[in-house]
Write a structure and sequence with these properties.
Layout (H helix, E strand, L loop, with lengths): L1 E5 L2 E5 L2 E3 L2 E3 L4 E6 L2 E10 L3 H18 L4 H29 L4 H21 L6 E3 L8 E3 L6 E5 L7 H12 L3 E5 L5 H14 L6 E3 L8 H7 L8 E4 L3 H13 L1
Parallel strand pairs: 2-6, 9-10, 9-12, 10-11
Antiparallel strand pairs: 1-2, 3-4, 5-6, 7-8
Helix pairs in contact: 2-3, 2-5, 3-4
Length: 254
């Protein structure tokens, strides 16, 4: 992330996060302060379909090792994240006020949701139990096991830019999956910073990949279409009913 000084404060410039590397590919987009359109909060690139595909493949590579990491160790990463989010809560709150336009109280509550979610699922790292199931057949024992699924595609909206992504990202990585996340173009800076905090907490490179862009005719659409290539084993979405139905149709085909 780079900072460019401007009349209204720093304009943050950053790229996609793919395989642990910052990638500056694609036409540049801008996010402006909704309460002061002269204030450019961020400049960031728009991902094309090839870059989204690359992110999914990097996630698949990272999944191979992360899925074999014991669940209690994955949970420890989330305990680390709790401490980091508590430390950075004031900064994230101020950034949310500037980038999204929330009141300070509402923004602080948004961040607190992520702290609470991380704390809950960190404890689940020691409770990923299977089951022993009674059998009607003699000399048979039945067991169930929890196994990671693979790569999860995630698209989130900008109304709760930290809370809602936390509800999807945190359980996904805790249970051993890797992620490609397309956050809202209304909150790119918060999303970039949130992902970097996961890295600081100890999440290995490639487990969480972030690609920026819009929805229809842009990064979000490419992500959904890539389900047909078998690059995602699960998909999570927050947005309109119309788009949700389309995602359901595509997912049903695979």
């Amino acid at each position: 992330m780079r900072k460019a000084a401007g009349k209204y404060g720093n304009t943050l410039e950053f790229g996609h996060l793919v395989g642990g590397e910052e990638v500056l590919e694609g036409p540049l987009l801008e996010r402006r302060n909704p309460s002061d359109r002269e204030d450019v909060v961020a400049r960031f690139p728009e991902a094309d379909k090839d870059l989204v595909r690359k992110a999914a493949l990097k996630a698949r590579e990272a999944f191979a090792e992360w899925s074999r990491t014991p669940a209690p160790i994955r949970g420890q990463v989330l305990f680390n994240l709790v401490k980091i989010l508590e430390r950075e809560k004031p900064t994230l709150t101020r950034l949310m006020v500037r980038e999204v336009g929330k009141t300070p109280k509402e923004a602080a509550g948004d961040v607190q949701e992520a702290i609470d979610t991380a704390l809950f699922f960190a404890s689940e790292g020691r409770r990923l139990y299977g089951q022993t199931v009674p059998s009607e057949m003699r000399d048979k024992e039945l067991f169930t096991f929890r196994r990671p699924l693979g790569v999860v595609g995630i698209i989130t909206a900008g109304n709760f830019p930290i809370a809602v992504p936390s509800w999807k990202l945190i359980p996904a990585v805790l249970t051993g999956n890797a992620v490609v996340w397309k956050p809202s173009e209304d909150a790119p800076t918060l999303s970039f910073v949130f992902a970097k905090l996961f890295e600081e907490a100890g999440l290995p490179p490639g487990v969480l990949n972030v690609v920026f862009g819009g929805g229809k005719g842009s990064t979000g659409q490419w992500m959904v279409e890539l389900m047909d290539e078998g690059l995602f084993q699960k998909f999570a979405f927050t947005g309109s009913t119309q788009v949700g139905r389309w995602i359901g149709e595509v997912a049903g085909g695979t």
